[in-house]
């Protein structure tokens, strides 16, 4: 990635308001990412983003491995390398394998890969593909996810995760935010 960000991130000496920066640092374990520095160009947007994505990352009942699988799939489909670099380690930490991670570089093939992915994981990948590529989800795909996931709450959360990280990847790519 040899691209420059399209607009400058907020430099450290200009970060603020302090309570917004503090809330982001708290969610991030003390650090700020380049994404956060870009978001801080609009403190109101940064507040909303931090609250919303904080809930998506930390307050759902959805299995963290499925959440991170969906996020990694969105990153690959949308060619959002920053998103991939942030979430590939999270996928491994949530129980994913290195072999699965390598297979995810081709999400379509992975959605059929019975050796590396179980039925619910393949259904998550299929849902990610349909939501990213065509927005509308086929009845067959939706029903496969519903049958395997079981919980309506988790189904809503999974759809929300995929939708949310489509937003993240589009923000990152449109502004050409660079990885740390």
Can you walk through the features of this model?
It contains ten helices and no strands. The protein is mainly alpha-helical and 180 residues long. The chain folds into two domains: 12-58, no CATH class; 64-175, AhpD-like (Up-down Bundle), CATH 1.20.1290.10. The longest helix has 24 residues, at 152-175. The termini are close together. The model has no long low-confidence stretch (mean pLDDT 95).
Question: Percent helix among the residues?
Answer: 55-70%
* Count of the separate structural domains: 2
**Can you tell me the overall shape?**
globular
In the CATH hierarchy, the third-tier topology of the largest domain is known as: AhpD-like
Written as H for each helix and E for each strand, in order along the chain, the element string is HHHHHHHHHH
Largest sheet report: none
- Average predicted confidence as pLDDT: 95
Tell me what portion of residues adopts beta-strand conformation: under 5%
* Total strand segments: 0
Q: What gyration radius follows from the Cα positions, in whole Å?
A: 17 Å
- The CATH architecture of the largest domain: Up-down Bundle
CATH class of the largest domain equals: Mainly Alpha
H/I helix tally: 10
């Amino acid at each position: 990635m040899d691209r420059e960000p399209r607009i400058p991130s907020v430099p450290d000496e200009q970060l603020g308001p302090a309570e917004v920066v503090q809330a982001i640092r708290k969610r991030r374990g003390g650090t700020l990412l380049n994404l956060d520095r870009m978001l801080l160009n609009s403190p109101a947007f940064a507040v909303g983003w931090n609250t919303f994505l904080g809930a998506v990352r930390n307050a759902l009942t959805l299995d963290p491995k499925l959440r991170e699988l969906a996020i990694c799939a969105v990153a690959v489909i949308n060619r959002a390398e920053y998103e991939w670099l942030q979430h590939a380690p999270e996928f491994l930490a949530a129980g994913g394998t290195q072999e699965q991670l390598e297979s995810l570089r081709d999400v379509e093939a992975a959605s059929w890969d019975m050796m590396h992915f179980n039925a619910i994981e393949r259904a998550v990948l299929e849902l990610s593909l349909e939501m990213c590529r065509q927005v509308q989800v086929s009845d067959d795909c939706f029903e496969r996810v519903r049958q395997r996931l079981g919980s309506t709450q988790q189904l809503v959360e999974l759809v929300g995760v995929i939708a949310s990280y489509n937003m993240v990847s589009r923000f990152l790519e449109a502004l050409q935010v660079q990885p740390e």
